[in-house]
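Dear colleague,

Thank you for sharing your sequence with our group. We've completed the structure prediction you requested, and as agreed, I am returning the results in plain text so they can be pasted directly into your records. Please verify that the sequence below matches your submission; if there's any discrepancy, let me know and we will rerun it promptly.
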Amino acid sequence: MLIRKAWLLKGADRVLPLARRVPFGVQRLVLQQALNRCFAEPLRDGEFELLRGRWMCLHVADLGLRWYVTLARDGLRIARQAEAQVTIRGNWREFLLLASRQEDPDTLFFRRRLVIEGDTELGLALKNLIDSLDPDVLPPWLWRNLERAGKGLASAG
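Please find the predicted structure tokens below.
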């Protein structure tokens, strides 16, 4: 089982960098739709209002990917470039551990495996928002796969 996990991680390390070759328009379409569907309830409840009129940059450093996210009238919006008030930077593995709840967000930030740059107050508020979201807002199939991938990564590391 450990060999299989190591093989999957090596495969991910080889395949995921190809994501930067996906045209930005396709990235935006997929991410915007996924975020707005997955977070429909928190968006309706106004939990993302802290992003209205402000931009957050998600920078997946090892993949060379950056997405700028804001809250618009019709939900979360992704842009190729914007003047970000805050950047959250890390490698794909740290974002997976965060999303799958396999690692405490405070630990990831304290150990500088994820870094907040810019408006740290906004960054901390976003970190707390992400941490407070119930995995039940995600489609069950997505949460199961995120959790499984995160557990595999956590046990391999």
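Summary note from our side: Strands lie at 56-60, 65-72, 75-79, 86-90, 114-118.

Kind regards,
the structure core
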